[in-house]
Amino acid sequence: MNDIRKIAFIGAGNMTQSIVGGMCKSGYPADHVFVSNPSPEKLEKMKSNLGVNTSQDNIEVIEQADVIVLSVKPQLMEQVCADIKSKVSNLADKLIITIAAGIRMPKYRTYLGDDITIIRVMPNTPSLVGQGMSGLVTDSADDKDKAYVTDVFDGVGDTLWVADEDQLDILGAVAGSGPAYFFEFMDSLAKGATELGFDPEKARAMVQQTCLGAAQMAKESDLTLEDLRKQVTSKGGSTAKGVEVYQQRDLHNISADAVKAAVKRNQEMADLF
Ligand SMILES: NC(=O)C1=CN([C@@H]2O[C@H](COP(=O)(O)OP(=O)(O)OC[C@H]3O[C@@H](n4cnc5c(N)ncnc54)[C@H](OP(=O)(O)O)[C@@H]3O)[C@@H](O)[C@H]2O)C=CC1
Ligand SMILES: O=C(O)[C@@H]1CCC=N1
User: Is-contact 124 175, C-beta < 8 A?
Assistant: First the structure.
């Protein structure tokens, strides 16, 4: 990465910790990373574990940075932006990234000014281990800013630019929320094994490695997901019986409904906040 900028994260919650942890692991210089948060505990942990600069004052970190990453809950965004707008005069000179679900770019213009340059990123928590999936969209950034943000998020996983904010809502409902669905599914598989008398620790170990192996295979294979599934499903064998249960209970519809529900909430948050 050639373009190293001073970057300030506003909010030191789960997602900031995942992104910053992944960035530092991938070699982004910690002295160029600034993080603010109202309570000190998360900041102390990030400072001692990663060596990043921290402050309980949002404005102090923003003033030192070229890039601002808004990483607070959507319901706090308006209030946090109002405070920034009232105290920082050169916002148009900085690149603004927001990772909040739902809230759309025109709304940020009403909060921070018409002249801001903004990129919306929808990351996910596996960024912490360099396996994130981040969606990106902008209505104002130039190629240089886009390349910088792509590099940052490529450093913590894969990136996908999407055409518009409707697409980002869908990406968020699948990839942003997705780790939660997979953890839920993995937990249910592990419990399926322990209910039959399998050791819980060993159940977790076998589930996580199976999940990782399947994802890696899907990523490296040219086959469709259906064909990969068929490769495992011997005629008259045990997998066929297991898959039959998922099909009878209509896993496809369950997942489609889950994605629709999450998209709907993203749209609601766009209106609410
Ligand atoms: N978690 C995820 O998987 C994903 C989250 N996102 C988005 O990321 C954003 C953050 O989510 P997440 O990290 O999960 O949430 P968290 O609740 O874990 O983190 C939010 C942080 O913001 C801090 N905060 C509260 N008020 C302020 C303030 N006035 N100024 C600065 N910081 C403040 C909180 O501090 P304290 O706890 O001390 O009050 C907290 O540490 C959300 O907008 C969400 O939509 C996007 C993709 C995935
Ligand atoms: O649950 C949420 O709203 C955020 C967005 C994607 C993951 N977490």
Answer: yes
Q: Which pLDDT score is estimated for 201?
A: 98
Say how many Å lie between the first and final Cα of the chain, rounded: 35
Level-2 CATH architecture, domain 7-166: 3-Layer(aba) Sandwich (3.40)
Mean pLDDT for all residues in the chain: 98
Residue 123 CA: which ligand 1 atom is closest?
Answer: 47
How far CA 96 is from CA of 175, 218, 226, 234, 272, in Å, comes to 22, 34, 41, 52, 21
pLDDT band at 1 (very low <50, low <70, confident <90, very high): confident
C-alpha angle 16-149-70 in degrees, rounded to nearest 5? 40
CA of 25 to the centre of ligand 1 (A): 21
In this structure, CATH architecture of domain 178-270: Orthogonal Bundle (1.10)
Q: How far is the CA of 199 from the centre of ligand 1 (A)?
A: 36
Say yes or no to pLDDT of 153 above 90: yes
Token digits of residue 14: 């789960």
State how far the alpha carbon of 115 is from the alpha carbons of 30, 62, 95, 198, in Å: 29, 17, 11, 59
Q: Who lines ligand 1 at CB under 6 A?
A: 10-16, 36-39, 42, 58, 71-74, 76, 80, 99-101, 122-125, 176
- pLDDT score, position 146: 98
Provide the residue ranges of all domains of the chain, joining segments of one domain with +: 7-166, 178-270
Residues constituting the chain: 273
* Ligand closest in space to the Cα of 98: 1
